[in-house]
Amino acid sequence: MSSTAVPEKVALTPPTTVRGNVRGYLERLRGGDLGAMPAVFGLVVLCLVFAVMRPVFLSATNFANLFTQGAAVTVIAMGLVFVLLLGEIDLSAGYTSGVCAAVLAVVLANYGLPWYVAVGAAMLTGVVIGTVLGTLVTKLGIPSFVVTLAAFLAFQGLLLVLVKEGTNISVRDQTIIAIENSYLPPALGWAFFAVCVLGYAAVQVVRARRRAGRGLAADPAAVIAFRVGLLVVLGGLAVYVLNLERSRNALIVSLKGVPIVVPIVVALLILWTFVLRRTAYGRHIYAVGGNAEAARRAGINVDRIKISAFVLSSGMASIGGVIAASQASSVDPNTGGSDVLLFAVGAAVIGGTSLFGGKGRMLDAVLGGAVVAVINNGMGLLGYSASVKYIVTGSVLLLAAGVDALSRKRAAASGLR
Amino acid sequence: MSSQPVLSIRGLDKSFGPVQVLHDVSFSAYPGEVTALVGDNGAGKSTLVKCIGGTYSIDAGEFHFDGRPVQVHSPRDAADLGIEIVYQDLALCDNLDIVQNMFLGREKRSGLVLDEATMEEMAARTLRDLSVRTVKSIRQLVSSLSGGQRQTVAIAKAVLWNSKVVILDEPTAALGVAQTAQVLELVRRLADNGLAVVLISHNMNDVFAVADRIAALYLGRMAAEVKAADVTHSQVVELITSGRSGELGLKNGNGVTA
């Protein structure tokens, strides 16, 4: 690797060639850093299996269903990534989403206020919940596992109070309903796709050129082209399929386009990826998760970072609750309950976020959310009962956590820790 | 070499409750020189360092920095003066890379966004100035580094900020022979670059390999501050174990209070 000709450059800059990039990736894999590999692999295998056993799995209607069914869990999982990065856990995220959804429904139905006030109230509820949880964990030093387990129970009760011990509050606001039940016009779907691709390509190219201009190692053009190409192919395929006519009788009602929830999830993904990767705040979250004592000595306010992570987790759970309310067009005592939390934690971990803290990306939650949605949807198509679905999803979560623990062990064995 | 100490402390007292840990300690560090701070376990080395670093508040005593009297009340004050301490456990984040660790808590940004390019350049320049050639890439995760390389990163992190005094707490304690040599070479180079280096060590070979001056603590008192060239190996050992060695060290009665 290192030559004596230009020691300064070669010695201190990362690989800049395509081969260097590929080799770096393989080295990370071998060293136990599997990243998103298991999730992508699992997604491909699951899709193949379900497609072979139930061809309807690949239909345009079912493809659109995957997005609307997986959205709420994915959004909650994205919030959980912040908490998991710190090596903490938020077991109450599911019922937090339920409580926030109930607040939304109550404000809409009982007070008749406009949708944005209701969404604001729901999100504010999430922020308050997160602040309380984070404060209990940091200032009192109660383990997050216990605090959020207690909150898990208490919020179940709070949700019952809000829905008057078991009634079902319907959500009739058209804007809220539209999130999960309306679709972008096909042209707008393509425009959204184009903006995403061009934006991504622009960011990548500008960064590479700026770095190259300062004599720093930059990603080679081929690698950037590969990434952008991948986005074009996968994103293009998804938008194309979503824009197919899904209605049985298109003359009566046309049903096509990208679900409105998709751009919302993509926007959240971009926002939080930016925060985690490009801001000092995001860097500090990784630092606290990796070595809280080192972070403290570096002058980082560890308590504030932890509280903010719980606020973000609960805040994202509130958005997940709004999406869930939209999907069901109502809120009942089960909103955000039963399997939602398990699925959300599963989504983050399956995607490659470590339960031990310090490792994970926002994209993990989305990939893992896709895996969970595919399992749920495919097994439903295969006619399995809820019992089997629970057992399989539980096993997948255990498998993902096992992969996480094993890769950590492997990293330790290969001297990478 | 230079005669003016960059950091000088006089009459430092420090107690924890009823236990007085440091008695009237004076200590100086000179630019361009390595000062070894030696002493047995419990002699007060770590306490002295934490007082200098602002982690502990002092009960009495004067601090002079660059000839000016100063007050150090917090680690932030010490860092502002240009005093950096590299603790034994290094305080690095395994899950971050070298650049990220070196700038932890003091990230360069342009607006809201981290200025990775500038940080990478500064980190590369610092490592180059220290003639560090052992790391493959400054974008390597710290988890993939050896013990010596980690020590190097921790030291580079300390000197990145134009610091004037760098205090190293047992930098070679956990290292093998080759890596110890590398780190000692780096310690020497820091001093040759004009920094005042304070090296805490138990290892006499390390001390005599790099130190210009030796300060020996004995039961919370400064037994002697001498030039390394003026003393022998066994004299320093005597200073550490009994507080005196012939003419050097604490006078009987004046010193030990059991």
From TrEMBL, chain A:
Transmembrane stretches, by residue range?
Answer: 34-57, 63-86, 93-109, 115-137, 144-163, 183-203, 224-244, 250-275, 340-358, 365-384
Q: Which UniProt keywords apply?
A: Cell inner membrane, Cell membrane, Membrane, Sugar transport, Transmembrane, Transmembrane helix, Transport
Among its keywords, does the record have Protein biosynthesis?
no
Signal peptide positions (record): none
Q: Which CDD domains match?
A: TM_PBP1_transp_AraH_like
List where in the cell it is found: Cell membrane
Pfam family name, one: BPD_transp_2
**Principal localization?**
membrane
Cellular component (GO) terms are: plasma membrane
Its record classes its membrane topology as:
Multi-pass membrane protein
An MF annotation (GO) of this entry = transmembrane transporter activity
Looking up PANTHER family in the UniProt record yields:
ABC TRANSPORTER PERMEASE PROTEIN YPHD-RELATED-RELATED, XYLOSE TRANSPORT SYSTEM PERMEASE PROTEIN XYLH
Relate the protein's function as given in its record: Part of the binding-protein-dependent transport system for D-xylose. Probably responsible for the translocation of the substrate across the membrane.
Q: What is this protein called?
A: Xylose transport system permease protein XylH
According to its UniProt entry, this protein's organism is Sphaerisporangium rufum
UniProtKB/TrEMBL annotation, chain B:
Please state every residue range assigned to the domain named ABC transporter: 7-244
Q: Name one Pfam family in it.
A: ABC_tran
Does the record's keyword annotation contain ATP-binding? yes
Q: Which domain of life is it from?
A: Bacteria
- CDD domains found in the cross-reference section: ABC_Carb_Monos_I (cd03216)
| GO molecular function, a single term | ATP hydrolysis activity
Query: Keywords in UniProt for this one?
Result: ATP-binding, Nucleotide-binding
What name does the UniProt record give this protein? ABC transporter ATP-binding protein
Organism this protein belongs to: Sphaerisporangium rufum
Q: What is the phylogenetic placement of the source species in the record?
A: Bacteria, Bacillati, Actinomycetota, Actinomycetes, Streptosporangiales
